[in-house]
Amino acid sequence: MKWSEVCIHTTNEAVEPISNILHEAGASGVVIEDATDLVKDRASIFGEVFELDPEDYPDEGVYIKGYLPVNSFLGETVDEIKEAISNLMKYNIDIGRNNVTISEVNEEEWATAWKKYYKPVKISEKITITPTWEEYEKVSSDEIIIELDPGMAFGTGTHPTTVLSLQALEQYVKGNDTVIDVGSGSGVLSIAAIKLGADRVYAFDLDDIAVKSTTINAKLNKVDGRINAQQNDLLKGVHIQPDIIVSNILAEVIVQFVDDAFKTLKSGGTFITSGIIQGKKQVVRDEMEKAGFQIVEVNQMEDWISIIAKKPLG
Description:
single chain; 314 residues; alpha/beta; Alpha-Beta Plaits; Rossmann fold; 2 domains; 7-stranded mixed sheet; 4-stranded antiparallel sheet
């Protein structure tokens, strides 16, 4: 089979929505090449990227590359991708240069070459994420290993928004907690919650690919019996009362269900949000406080923000 590489030159802010657009268009894998990766200082415990070639990276912004089979529908599919990306501006998402280029790739090289970029990554005090093909031994008895297949949709679990969410879960999950994961994607947050001691996780996502991805990764990590993955629109129609709601999703989406999150959470429950760019921090914070939440933490990694709030007791 022949494959075409669709490359979009855009901004860091647009990475997640454009990646989702490519997945929905049928892309078999997405590659993100961020110009800032070339200048980041990395702690020695992080091993997810190495030997970066500056020729592969833009002078500024981000390249997002998706891979589509070459067939009679390719031109139509590319036009739909371009239109969907342009529509992101309606939601005040900066899409930057938005240059889209198409090139043909060798299937054998593409199928395996990308694996060299993914190594086990220590995300927090306890959590390490490792790709399925890497052998990894625990370095301490309380280390939590999460295996993911980056060849599936939703990436490697090492994006700053995911890291912020995992670090918050490590801090707030207690034994026997019930957790709701809104916008579960790969299921990495749901898996982490169980491995951190939660009794049950309800993983919701509107995208059926995400539901399948969560289900597969839960089985891979042997926690599928305690994760209920289902298709759902945010918290609509949800009557479970969890101890924690976690959502790594766009700020524009978070503000749509803040009221539902407050109503759904148990008294004293925790609302962990991530996926918020610096410029949208105050908007999300204001909506949370208006709903009745008390802000307990605001954390930042690179240009990304996570906000952790509590529902007051009583």
